[in-house]
TrEMBL record:
Protein name (Swiss-Prot/TrEMBL): DUF5104 domain-containing protein
Pfam families for this protein: DUF5104 (PF17117)
Gene3D superfamilies: 3.10.450.50
Classification via InterPro entries: DUF5104
Length: 178
């Protein structure tokens, strides 16, 4: 192999690398994040929006589909903001599962996560359903459902549904139980 051919190969590799970086929003770190790291990051975004009482930031995490399917998003936000007390001290992932669907060269990745959130005043259970990526139906990409209650409520409720059995678009609040 001549020097010219080697230079051409190196140039092609660099060009391909540049294209990959640009296609990922120029954020190379996102390529190398594990599924767990992505889930933890999403959890932190949810908690930050709740602590800041930022309904717009929370709404921005949800998919177009979820926002279209829910009629009580603001009630869920109000419930979260009124029930969450203190500032976060620890976030512990307690469970997660994922399903990936493939169809005609496209894919959809659905995640169910559960966390234990400890604040300076209370400990909470957090569940969320997230379509991490979806090239089959892009409007579904983003959060679909969020449920947060105190750990005491979770532990003392018979047949507690974390949210994964009866998925509902939006943010949980007690009227969902009626």
């Amino acid at each position: 192999m001549g020097v010219t051919a080697m230079k051409r190969n190196i140039l092609c590799i660099l060009l391909l690398f540049g294209i990959v970086v640009c296609m990922t929003g120029c954020n190379i770190n996102n390529i190398f994040k594990t599924e767990e790291e992505k889930n933890d990051e999403k959890c932190q975004q949810i908690i930050m929006a709740i602590e800041n009482h930022d309904a717009d930031a929370l709404k921005g995490l949800f998919s177009e589909t979820a926002l279209h399917e829910t009629s009580d998003f603001s009630e869920g936000c109000d419930y979260l903001f009124s029930e969450y007390h203190g500032t976060v001290e620890s976030i512990k992932r307690t469970r997660y599962s994922s399903n990936t669907h493939y169809e005609s060269g496209k894919h959809a990745r659905e995640i169910d996560c559960e966390y234990e959130i400890t604040t300076s005043e209370e400990t909470y259970f957090l569940y969320f359903n997230d379509w991490e990526s979806n090239t089959i139906d892009p409007e579904k990409e983003g959060l679909y459902s969020v449920k947060m209650v105190t750990l005491e409520i979770k532990d003392n409720t018979e047949n507690f549904d974390p949210g994964s059995r009866n998925k509902r678009a939006g943010i949980y609040y007690p009227a969902w139980d009626e």
